[in-house]
Amino acid sequence: MQIAAETRKQFGDATKVGKGPDIVVGAHDWLGELVQNGTVAPIQLDEATAAKFAPASIAASQFDGQNYGVPFSIENIALVRNTDLAPDAPATLDDLLTAAKAAKAKDSKVSVLLDQSVGKTGNAYYTYPWLSAYGGGIFGVKDNGDYDPDKVIVNSAESLKGAEQLAQMGKDKVLSTNVGDDNAEGIFTGGKSPFFITGPWSIPNIKKAGINYGISPLPSLPGGDAMQPFLGVQLFYVSAKANNATLAQEFVTNYVPTKDFQLAMFDAGGRPPALTEAYDEVAAADPDVKAWYEAGKDGKPMPNIPAMNSVWGPLGQAASDVIAGKAEPKARFDAAQKEIVANIKKAS
Questions:
Q1: CA 165 to CA 6: how far, in whole Å?
Q2: 172-227 pLDDT, tens per residue?
């Protein structure tokens, strides 16, 4: 059963009274909240089986050293380009802008140099790669590698370099708050931009629009490294109040980790499989799958700790404000840091 983020509370409420589903499919970043609320059960995945998966997908399935899910797919954003407008993959942001300006000069329909969802309230998911290029991000990590909710780094020196780059992109009219989740895809499928930062979910409509496209890693930023996306992992969870707990556990530990099952899930949803054997098979037949992997191979799993719920709004709005020129990066990201820390303390 697939549940959207807004229905997690309903799932939790139903589970508490024993009326929820035995098995749930969902994103890995729900994990901390689901564990905190006591709605999912630990899953004993033996070492030999875990070793068959991409390491990042197993890391995303764990919380406080315990495994709570079995992964079936990994996804991330990348740079999708209209190859009729931009034949070559840009290695750097400067390369991208040079190619984008050339495309605009050549085709009057091009009006957006870089198509990325920002919107009036921002989008922290797309903000993170700009911070990551300078070693910044959202949370620091503990000695064991887990994200540390007590170490928010939104206004670190490294993150601020990314914020300054976002402000420059707004000033140069490369990024705009007029481009958001409601119109970003249409801009690209309408041939109005040579470059689109998005994920595999956009490809079906890009194909339908007849756009010739290529997928490549996000570019490096001036004075920094390549932008790195968050990795998103889809998991099978078992309810803490499952009516048929033994059968549910048997299904997720014995059936989900098989190549045939993972291939079937890929055929149904188009997300690259988390099981290495299944991934290798689809990557050999589908160049897009390999391209998404290459674009995300150095990315980190999105934080799955409950504190992440305190980040989305403040960080997204801070990015939107600096892109719009409403505030200076340091002052605005300092304010976002303060708000996030306060929200985490309030929630705990």
A1: 32
A2: 999 999 999 999 999 999 999 999 999 999 999 999 999 999 999 999 999 999 99
CB 242 within 8 A of CB 77: no
Q: Which of 316, 310, 308 has its CA nearest to residue 333?
A: 316
pLDDT digits (tens, 9 = 90+) for 147-160: 999 999 999 999 99
Question: What's the pTM value of the predicted model, to 2 decimals?
Answer: 0.91
- Residues listed for the chain: 348
DSSP codes joined into one string, 293-336:
HHHHTT-EEPP-SGGGGGTHHHHHHHHHHHHTTSS-HHHHHHHH
Q: Which residues contact 260 (CB under 8 A, 6 or more apart)?
A: none
CA–CA dist 330, 80 (Å, integer): 31
CA dihedral 23, 77, 335, 134 (to 10 degrees): 130
Cβ within 8 Å of residue 16, ≥6 positions away: 38, 39, 241
Tell whether the torsion through CA atoms of 310, 313, 314 and 315 is positive or negative. Answer: positive
Contact 182, 167 (CB under 8 A): no
Q: How far apart are CA 272 and CA 79, in angstroms?
A: 17
Could you tell me the strand order of the sheet in which 78-82 lies? 195-198, 78-82, 213-216
Q: Please, how many CA atoms are within 13 Å of residue 228, restricted to the half-sphere of its CB?
A: 16
What span, in angstroms and rounded, lies between the C-alpha atoms of 220 and 16? 47
pLDDT greater than 80 at residue 126: yes
